[in-house]
Amino acid sequence: MTTHVPSSPADQPLDMVIFGGAGDLSVRKLLPALYMAHLHGSLPRQTRIIAVGRNAWSREQYLAFVEELSRPFVDAHALDAGAWERFLALLDYACVDFGAPDDYAHLAEKTCGDALRVFYLATSPNLFSVICYNLAACGLVDSHARVVLEKPLGHDLASAKAINASVGRHFPEARIYRIDHYLGKETVQNLMVLRLRNAIFGTLWQAPYIKSVQITVAESVGVGSRAGFYDHTGAMRDMIQNHLLQLLCIVAMEPPVSLDPDAVRDEKLKVLRSLRPMSREMIARDTVRGQYAAGAVDGEPVRGYLDEPDVPNGSGTETFVALRAQINNWRWANVPFFLRTGKRMHRRRSEIVIEFADMPFSIIPNGPHNCANRLVIQLQPEESIQLQMLAKEPGSGLRVLPVSLNLDLQQAIAGRRAEAYERLLVDVIRGRLTHFMRCDELEAAWTWVEPILDGWKALGDKPRSYTAGTYGPAASSALMAREGMLWAEEA
Model's pTM, two decimal places? Predict the structure, then answer.
């Protein structure tokens, strides 16, 4: 699939229209990210940010809402009183019933005729179609307008296809930005440089030199106020289908022929289409579902999932998934990819661990430690790259012990590091599509995930209980142990 990537002149006015402008995502992420972009001169000179919601607020009431609830999410070191006031001057508010066509005329009155319009749909996906239809019907979708779609992008393959079709009737693919904030993280984007520009990894980035790959996205928080949404979603849909599969694609894809957005996304698509489909037998053997029970996180007692507000009695929704994936191509033949995500785990951590194969022969005996060479790419809470190697233990003899070469990216590279949402919002404004999912990527991910969800249902698979504050059910360790491997924290 080839798409023409539009660009934006630096002096073109911008209207950033945020549907769900008073929602949690806007308050915690989008508005602070736009403030940071404004502070550092990344927004066009003539920028307006129009929040759209159903509350019958005046502009002044909305500004008071932002001042109270969004300002605390701005980095205190970056909060400048004058810059904040100038940022607030960019904001406006429109009360719109998303399903009422007449209300969109009020929104149209607030937009500038020659501005680049970016519509950010921070709403439930079941509203995407009606919003895009009404925007087009009132003439707000011109040949330059762009739309940003926030996950979840569907509940299954059929709904994902329906979203792609309905939005695609009004916006061409080159102006649709399916956002995944993990692709905006500095370390994730740096992974391409690590792979493609460093000779020490180039020829080793394949079987048989790599023994396994682990991708972990662990959260210490529970479902909180999102239980109503989460209980109909679960960890597989919420995290594996998007975040973790996108990380897998960047690790596993072939070097693209260029940095053109479609060249990169073509290679990611090939990875998704190369994932070995799981049979019912494989689902039973190679996947683990879990659900957190009461425990303690950071020394504080926390309730179990079934005791969270708005969670139905006896819910079978998983809050943890670990699975073994296989990529059926020459580069990754027989290399297992272990994906893991969960809530209420021991600590918040996102990382990629590349474990290299053992030497075929060595005169140096193994030490008492687990002595694999590993490349550990940490995405959060800190961003770092660590190469775990072997060195001689002090003293007589040739006993070995593991040591690490550490690259703390924040210390090694001076300068401010933009947060993921800020970076991706600037990419949208400048017409950069590389770090956004294409429609066929989305559908290929669902094509692999949906049979696993169906398999769990057919098998009557119930999530295994794990104590909050741990690393998940013991069965996830057994999944690794079966192949003589360990999760990174167990090694």
Answer: 0.92
